[in-house]
Amino acid sequence: MQTFQFVAVEEAKNAIEKLAAAEQSRYLAGGTTLVDLMKIYVETPDQLVDIQHLPLSEIKVLDDRVEIGAMVRNSDLADHSYIKQHYPVLSEALLSGATPQIRNMASVGGNLLQRTRCTYFRDIAWPCNKREPGAGCAAIDGHNRMHALLGTSDKCIATHPSDMCVAMMALDAVIQTLSSDGGRQIPIQEFYVAYGDDPAKENVLEPGELITGVTLPKLQNAAKSHYLKVRDRAAFEFALASAAVVLDLKGKDIVTARIALGGVAAKPWRSLEAEHYLVGKSVSEATFKAAAVEALKAAKPQKDNAFKIELARRTLVRALQNAAEIPS
Ligand code: SF4
Fold it and tell me: Please, is 39 exposed, middle or buried when counting C-beta atoms within 10 Å of its C-beta (0-12, 13-18, 19+)?
């Protein structure tokens, strides 16, 4: 690991000032992504600004929303009684990720900024446009079984690895940030960017902008929600395909549907096509199967990952059946 300066701060304003003081500076939250990448020289900051002691570790349940501090640990959010009862999709997504030890360290803000698990990105011997813009992409002609079907470009086909973010996408989360210009609120659908020509640019954060928290709007029937993840082994593994669904039902009729996919796209993937298909229809296996076809219509498979199209469809159908509590 390359040597670096370590600065601990206790106020958000101070963190932003310290970060700006060094050229290659990073915020350090739980460190479960950043420190890994530093050990393998994918990240080589010359300064870390430790934000673990900022007062951002509260979960506040208010009348019209839930506010979650950026430093809330993944395990605390997953086990919070209100979240488990009213946003089961989020608790299930968090508990399906990583291991208990990692969830005890990983923060909500850090999880929003997880980097891809593309093996070529994590090995500096290979060309990677995300790590080194303009270098090329080893995955396009390499082993790409785990790679993305949606939101890719001819520069990068990596998947976004997070489970939590897929649930937050289906819950219409809003991300709070702070910078030297003040604060702003970014709806999660506008937070992640498509790869396009620059895969190194993954979100709309400006240099030095600090995530301070996430707000979840209250959803009338959010208890009818579910996260389903399919992976190669039962624990400590990233998704081949996952689905987060939130249904508002009146009897058997679908009033609103929110659907996001994980493991198959360059970013947590909201499927408005599937949602539009579902609204106004009655819950049934046939309806859910047709919605799943809509969700994967734009899929562009690589040489090793075409199987993910059918896998993602089936994952979504099963997640919808579970949320709607109809037999599968
Ligand atoms: Fe890099 Fe993206 Fe290609 Fe992986 S898929 S090697 S992250 S450019």
Answer: exposed
